[in-house]
UniProtKB/TrEMBL annotation:
<feature type="short sequence motif" description="Histidine triad motif">
    <location>
        <begin position="97"/>
        <end position="101"/>
    </location>
</feature>
<feature type="active site" description="Tele-AMP-histidine intermediate">
    <location>
        <position position="99"/>
    </location>
</feature>
<feature type="domain" description="HIT">
    <location>
        <begin position="4"/>
        <end position="110"/>
    </location>
</feature>
<protein>
    <submittedName>
        <fullName>Histidine triad nucleotide-binding protein</fullName>
    </submittedName>
</protein>
<dbReference type="GO" id="GO:0003824">
    <property type="term" value="F:catalytic activity"/>
</dbReference>
<dbReference type="InterPro" id="IPR019808">
    <property type="entry name" value="Histidine_triad_CS"/>
</dbReference>
<dbReference type="InterPro" id="IPR011146">
    <property type="entry name" value="HIT-like"/>
</dbReference>
<dbReference type="InterPro" id="IPR036265">
    <property type="entry name" value="HIT-like_sf"/>
</dbReference>
<dbReference type="InterPro" id="IPR001310">
    <property type="entry name" value="Histidine_triad_HIT"/>
</dbReference>
<dbReference type="Pfam" id="PF01230">
    <property type="entry name" value="HIT"/>
</dbReference>
């Protein structure tokens, strides 16, 4: 499968990894939109949020809590941050492997 995020997960292409465990990987976005711009991805290939199912429930909960934990570690939890997942064409999804953007470190416009 020709999926850029699966290649990052398999360490076939490099990325600036921020967090990793058996279920998820977090790495810096290569074209950051904010001082903090980290992508959180499941290690399992899931195309987008609507392709996730009941079996992914605990992994998704774990992923969201890991985002909050990372925001705390980076010290952006008090000022605030944004979590975004783009779904499909109208949502602006470019990479078709489910990912959550953690954005912060500045006052974000919409
Ligand atoms: P989407 O629009 O699909 O939600 O966003 C995909 C994001 O992945 C973009 O912000 C883009 O900069 C980032 N991205 C795409 N390819 C790579 C890559 O090879 N490495 C890294 N670190 N980020 C990537
Ligand atoms: Zn993938």
């Amino acid at each position: 499968m020709d999926c850029i995020f699966c290649k990052i997960i398999k360490k076939e292409i490099p990325a600036d990894i921020v967090y990793e465990d058996d279920q998820i990987l977090a790495f810096k976005d290569r074209a950051p939109s904010a001082p903090v711009h980290i992508l959180f991805v499941p290690k399992k290939h899931i195309q987008s949020l609507v392709h996730a199912d009941k079996g992914d429930e605990s992994m998704l909960g774990h992923l969201l809590l890991s985002i909050a934990e990372t925001a705390k570690k980076l010290g952006i939890d008090e000022r605030g941050f944004r979590v975004v997942t783009n779904n499909g064409k109208d949502g602006g999804q470019i990479v078709h492997h489910l990912h959550f953007h953690l954005l912060g470190g500045k006052k974000l416009g919409w």
